[in-house]
Amino acid sequence: MSIKSLHKKLIKKKLTISLAESCTGGLLAHNLTKLSNSSKYFQMGLTTYSNQAKIKILRVNKNIIKKYGAVSKECCKVMVKNLSKISKSRINVSITGIAGPGGGSKHKPVGLVYIGIKKGNYLKIHEHKFKSKNRNKIQLLTVKEAIKKLLNLI
Predict the structure, then answer these.
(1) Residue 1 above 60 pLDDT?
(2) In the predicted model, what is the mean pLDDT of residues 133-146?
(3) What residues pair up with 92 in beta bridges, in sequence order?
(4) pTM to 2 decimals?
(5) What is the distance, to the nearest Å, from the Cα of residue 116 to the centroid of all Cα atoms in its chain?
(6) pLDDT confidence band for 86 (50 / 70 / 90)
(7) Does the pLDDT of residue 148 top 60, yes or no?
(8) In angstroms, rounded to a whole number, what is the distance separating the alpha carbons of residues 14 and 22?
(9) What's the CA gap between 142 and 90, in Å, rounded?
């Protein structure tokens, strides 16, 4: 299961994809667009890193961030739902998490990541707790997990 497999599947099935990334900082978008012909499926990649960007661009209600936090199932769900309205892509992905090495807490440790995927009426928020404290590794693991989930879906 690789980015090349996903690339081929998206082209073959004529699917479009858009992303809203936070803790991965555009790494999934980079992986999707590094292959030739990615313009056949890739619509947009938003790096909504700050809470302000999530509120302004993705229209995440600030009360959701206040109540649950930017790293939460609830925030991830609104991110992917609103991205799908903005992008009109067939597949939409949102990612929010704590890549570390700082920023974690007892309830939300470093390595906690949410990946939201919406395709038509299908909407699922996946929670992952990566055991690493290494920022780059958490980002890479998150991207790998998102690719795996997308390949299983399509």
Answers:
(1) no
(2) 94
(3) 18, 118
(4) 0.94
(5) 6
(6) very high
(7) yes
(8) 27
(9) 21
Q: Quick check: helix, strand or coil at residue 134?
A: coil
In whole angstroms, give the CA distance from residue 52 to residue 88: 23
Nearest to 113 by CA among 140, 92, 82: 140
Ramachandran region, residue 126 (left: φ > 0; alpha: ψ -120 to 50; beta: rest): beta
Alpha helices in the chain (DSSP H): 3-12, 27-33, 51-56, 62-68, 73-87, 135-153
Average pLDDT, the chain: 95
Quick one: average pLDDT of 59-81?
96
CB contact set of 101 (below 8 Å; sequence gap of 6+): 110, 133, 134, 135
Cα 154 from Cα 7, distance rounded (Å): 11
The full set of domains in the chain, from first to last, is: 3-153 (3.90.950.20)
Look up tokens 């404290």; give the residue. Answer: 133
